[in-house]
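hey all, quick one before standup. I had two proteins in the batch that finished overnight and I want to keep them in one place so we stop losing track of which output belongs to which input. First protein below, input sequence then structure tokens straight from the run.
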Amino acid sequence: MFVQLAYGKDGMEVELPDHAVIVEPKYVRGVTDEKQALRASLQAPIGTVRLAEMVKPDSKVVIVVSDITRPAPSDRILPVLLEQLETVKQENIRIVNALGLHRPNTREEFVHMLGQEIVDAFGDRIINHNANDKAELVYLGESSRGTPMWINRTYMEADIKIVTGFIEPHFFAGFSGGRKSVFPGIAGADTITKNHNAVHIDHQLACYGSLEGNPIHEDMLEIARKTNPSFMINVALNNDHEITGVWSGDIELAHAAGVAFVKETAMQKLPHHFDIVITTNSGYPLDINLYQSVKGMAAAQLILKPKGTMIVVAECSEGVGDAFFEVLKSRSSGKALLEMIRTPGWSAPDQWTAQVLARMLVAHELYLYSDHLCEEDIRRCHFSPVKNIELLVQDILRRNPLATIAVIPHGPMTIPYVESRVGNL
């Protein structure tokens, strides 16, 4: 049978044995009228008054948006959101790009993310967050877990703080959206590194679908609350990136309502683990680099047998990810990486994703298909390069004719599981 995999912008088709099991989220049709769905949510927010009732003509307003590595439909959300701010002087509204520790986005990327009209209208009032410049951050003390709270200054100085985004499963924060726009989106490097430390990443509840008892999520939520966000609007998306649901209002209550919806669509129970799992990172922009693509791998691991084979299909048009690559190539194996990362006092940017990957390297055999990474770099990241997925599968089946196969065409858009529960799902 032929299977269409999400890969880069165009996807790719592979031919696989007929007994392969396809694992996809439950398909939900996009709403009939996206603008009307957005307006309806904004008119009936959860846990807050309407945004239009919060603002005054002289209010200083900040809107936080997701960066280029997220498929958040900001170009569809913002025009409707700005209707609620029509009484505010436009020069008082700023847009902050929630980069976390990612690279700054270009004007061309802003046009792709936000639309030409908004980029032209806001110009230099669209700001790339800088997690490493403390002059652009405000210190709020420490969280109850001892995390130093550094948050974007432009955001903190606003009267009205609005966060936007979309909700999907997340491999160690449980779900994206909500508080993640604030932290790690516009947090300082020290804040992010402390929250994403090795002990937290190794916690059994720091996984897909888990919020209650997840130390990473709970620290994020506490810190986001400390910043007094005014309003949130989040959406859910289907595989076609159509909006399937909208939630507005309080950053915790509205997010919880969205999470409940996404749980029902993303969760897929399977009868057993598999010998081979083929996964993606849901195509562009999620598979823009190998660092982001670990999310799809973490989803695949949930149904992969110990010592099983994972085949990762990720375009990686921007490479590995600089800081991530530095960590990976500093050691010769997954075991050595784990030993280094778990050493008390050791830390480095992107160590958290390296830690998740290293655990998989110890437990499984990992292959990577990428048109943009050379074989040498793939091997330095501890994967075996593969040029032909069909031939690799055939070779494995020659050695083990009874090998079972699962395919996750949209990677982290699906949470597959075998046991009765994954995290709190």
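OK second protein, same deal, sequence then tokens:
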Amino acid sequence: QIIRVSLKMNILFLKIKLIQYLKQYYMKNKVLVVGAGFAGSIHARELAENGYNVTLIDKRDHIAGNCYDFIDRETSVRIHRYGPHLFHTSNGTVFEYLSKFTKWTKYEHRVVVKINKNKLVPLPININTINDIFNQTFKNEEDVRAFLDKLIIRKKNIMNAEDWLYSKIGKELTDIFYRPYTKKMWGLDLKEVSHAIVKRIKFSFSNEDRYFPNDTIQYLPTNGYTCLFENLLDHENIDIKLSQNFDKSMINEFDFCFNSMPIDEYYDFRYGHLPYRSIKFVHSTETRDSSNGHVVINYSDQSRYTRETWWHNLPKHAEKNNSLYIKTKEIPCDYSENNLERYYPVKTHDDRYGKTYNEYKNINENQIQFIGRCGTYQYLDMHQVVNQSLINIKKWIKSNE
């Protein structure tokens, strides 16, 4: 009798141990990823490829984050719901990685800017812009640079966006092209904005009219970004749950969490709010094409708009010609005025919000890592998010082998 009881106790003990082991094993292969944009989706795909069971959630009703695009039923034109997303990079690794999930269509972006009196000139500033503004007839880059050399204001210490622009193109061009636009876009004067924001601008004083002249790879996904993401997330180890808000209690069900939500929101704004700029999109169906072939027209005038996009002029974006067009105009605002839609982290000349972010970043968390633009409070282009995500997840997987 004693032996029988002892045997039953041992079997029960072994069952408990087996359940605990299986639970620990199962938990160690379960990862929660919050956000189905590039950062979250790449983390999810790489985890899935390495044997992890991934649950990917997003509070929106679609994948692809701010890259989400779709065919408008009325016009049969593809539009990007959150503004034009134009893939450009010189990083071959990033391009090769994404090429596993999409075919590409060549596209080199060109922009004109509307200044006062509805005058349209090329942007970024090139030789034709200079000739238009100053009523000149320069023929080569050397003459333009010699002309601008008399206008630029050299600064020993670059403290803000104004300093950087003055040192490149002088006060007059800065005030025409960048001061009005910056005030609308960021709600700040150039003196208050970090020069890191405007350092992204590439000037070419030749006839170069491409918006991204230094990037060797410039394409659009042939079948759209949403299709790219569908392929990227097509893996048996990825479970996607849309229209799903994140709750901290979810973390207890997983071994680890990669989170692209705003880091200040996660911590209940313990150290204050991190500000973002947002965009309100005004779509209109047009029966007349008044774009003159332009995809994007920036507004450096006194209107409240920053740019307009004519979607049918992008390659592979007009399924058929039915004489209907979609024009989208953009109105910048604080994210609090647009349903808390966060697009651009605000970077000031004194980096005061960067200091706030670091307070959040330095909170010790063993089970969670913040990723993406909102999770790391960075102003990143698509290719930078992809590159950063690939490096980060490969490093994490290796450290957990």
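Flagging for whoever picks this up: The mean pLDDT is 93. The longest helix spans residues 2-28.
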